[in-house]
Amino acid sequence: TQLLEQSPQFLSIQEGENLTVYCNSSSVFSSLQWYRQEPGEGPVLLVTVVTGGEVKKLKRLTFQFGDARKDSSLHITAAQPGDTGLYLCAGKNYGGATNKLIFGTGTLLAVQP
Amino acid sequence: DAGITQSPRYKITETGRQVTLMCHQTWSHSYMFWYRQDLGHGLRLIYYSAAADITDKGEVPDGYVVSRSKTENFPLTLESATRSQTSVYFCASSVSENQPQHFGDGTRLSIL
User: Fold this and answer.
1) What is the pLDDT of residues B49-99, one digit of tens each?
2) How is residue B84 annotated by DSSP?
3) How far is Cα A106 from Cα B69, in angstroms, rounded to an integer?
4) Residue A101 and residue B53: Cα distance in Å, rounded?
């Protein structure tokens, strides 16, 4: 069974701080997605990274795909209370069954005002 | 634009009972998925469907049954509920093989 380990599992920070969330695996993925999930709602896609070493920015969020396509990171600059939520990474396999994703264990972020 | 809706949002039932969770999407997406979300496990795929009348097992299919007679509906049935199936269940859909998945708001299921 393939695993995507996320760290840290929980993170509580003050507004304005920076943070990084990591998503690691021993498997190679053809692409990797990051989702944010708020209480009582389903996950919402933030970004998809496809190329090894790729960096994508979404306002204060920076996503990077590892060169070997086994890991990814999410960096948030100057966190705000609106960033609070559960962050999930999800990898898609090379040659795997159609559109099946392997989800990470999640990082629960709380940004205190 | 209704999107993807799940019903019920909350359900309490007893062990041994049959329960069906509904998922309906208005986009005519080809692919639909069922996941369960549990602490420490993230989201795990139960079943998925590439089109009407085509379904396949995911990572944790035991104890679940699905059907897809119409493109827009993808019900998930627990034939004889067990306490280990207490979870939050999410349905998702995507337009095609390499497009993002869009999730419903989930059904919180408690089995006593």
Assistant:
1) 999 999 999 989 999 999 999 999 999 999 999 999 999 999 999 998 778
2) G
3) 33
4) 21
Residue showing tokens 């933030």 = A46
Q: Does any CB of chain B come closer than 8 Å to the CB of residue A1? A: yes
8 Å CB contact between A11 and A26:
no
A27-63 pLDDT, tens digit per residue, is 899 899 999 999 889 999 999 999 999 999 999 999 9
Partner residues linked to B44 by β-bridges: B36
What are the two backbone dihedrals, phi and then psi, of residue A99, each rounded to the nearest 5 degrees? 55, 20
Chain A CB contacts of B34 under 8 Å are none
Beta A85-93 vs A107-112: how paired, if at all?
A: antiparallel
Two structure tokens written together for A91:
């990898």
Distances (CA, A) of A17 to A42, A77, A113: 26, 7, 11
Alpha-carbon gap, residue A71 to A88, rounded angstroms? 13
Residue with tokens 């034939």: B79
Structure tokens at A94: 């090379």
**If you measure CA to CA, which chain B residue comes closest to A101?**
B45
For B66, the token pair is 């699905």
